[in-house]
Q: What sequence folds into this?
């Protein structure tokens, strides 16, 4: 939360003037009003002191040897990078041209020399009001940013499991197709279902069903070991895995490891004809994307492979390209 400035609070004021007497008078007036004073007698030193101390307000003499006050103001504005520190120019000249040059350089107001405590107090109060208004605006902007981030989170993540939702999966899949196309690297996609989840809900109830979905979601999240791997809830008991830089053989190895991890978790299924514990069926598709590759095409192939995995008895993954499921591949490997 941004700290709010009260109009009654004291300020740290940087006084910049090459002449000692005007600096002394300004210090006396400011301290009588309860403000803390920093002083600089030269333009370059003023910029350095500003960078070191970040004062709340600057009283800046216009006429100085070498660089004038307008130069100092421009340096300070460039150094703030989006911030804003009120600058009051001090000058014996206050014609229209001088005011215009001051505003162009980044100043906010003019005070004619010699300054009076009464006028200085009024100007400072006006600047304090602007500082308070800016702090409030920044606070509201921060609240809006946080609200937008929360809205973005809600719009891209599933409320129950915390996984990416279908919208986010589709968006990420388009991004990874483009990235793998540029890189000339393989991309694997898996769609997977919890086997006989309706029977789970009918037997154990929807509260237990939600708990099961959360457990499986955490397992899928933990299985995403690389930064670009993504697990998402595609809908109901259906999930998606996006696995960039994963060839088809690697995807099958990944799928077998995932099934073993789920088996070790031993989440009881009260009414499954497949196994006493929760199992998954999944469809895999892998390609090195080219200009003809689309997210819709990958999803259709993964969905077709998922259908094949279910038709072959569930509790397995089927690869669309290899036309092989994890059980068959395991048996083939054992014969080698």
A:
């Amino acid at each position: 939360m941004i700290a709010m400035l009260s109009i009654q609070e004291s300020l740290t004021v940087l006084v910049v003037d090459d002449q000692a007497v005007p600096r002394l008078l300004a210090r006396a007036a400011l301290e009588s009003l309860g403000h803390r004073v920093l002083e600089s007698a030269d333009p370059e030193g003023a910029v350095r002191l500003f960078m070191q101390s970040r004062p709340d307000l600057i009283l800046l003499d216009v006429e100085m040897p070498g660089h004038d006050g307008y130069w100092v103001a421009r340096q300070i504005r460039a150094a703030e990078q989006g911030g804003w520190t009120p600058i009051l120019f001090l000058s014996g000249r206050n014609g229209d041209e001088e005011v215009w040059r001051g505003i162009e350089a980044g100043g906010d107001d003019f005070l004619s020399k010699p300054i009076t405590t009464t006028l200085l107090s009024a100007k400072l109060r006006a600047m304090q009001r602007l500082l308070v208004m800016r702090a409030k605006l920044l606070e509201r902007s921060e609240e809006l940013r946080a609200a937008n981030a929360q809205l973005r989170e809600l719009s891209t993540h599933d409320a129950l499991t915390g996984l990416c939702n279908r919208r986010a999966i589709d968006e990420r899949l388009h991004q990874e197709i483009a990235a793998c196309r540029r890189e000339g690297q393989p991309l694997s996609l898996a769609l997977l279902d919890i086997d006989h989840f309706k029977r789970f809900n009918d037997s154990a109830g929807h509260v237990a069903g939600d708990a099961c979905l959360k457990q499986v979601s955490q397992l899928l999240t933990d299985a995403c070991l690389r930064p670009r791997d993504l697990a998402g809830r595609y809908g109901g008991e259906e999930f998606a895995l996006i696995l960039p830089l994963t060839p088809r053989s690697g995807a099958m190895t990944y799928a077998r490891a995932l099934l073993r991890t789920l088996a070790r978790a031993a989440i009881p299924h009260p009414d499954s004809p497949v196994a006493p514990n929760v199992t998954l069926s999944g469809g895999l598709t892998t390609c090195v994307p080219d200009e003809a590759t689309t997210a819709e095409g990958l999803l259709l192939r993964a969905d077709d492979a998922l259908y094949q995995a279910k038709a072959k008895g569930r509790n397995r993954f089927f690869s669309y390209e290899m036309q092989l499921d994890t059980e068959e591949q395991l048996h083939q490997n054992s014969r080698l």
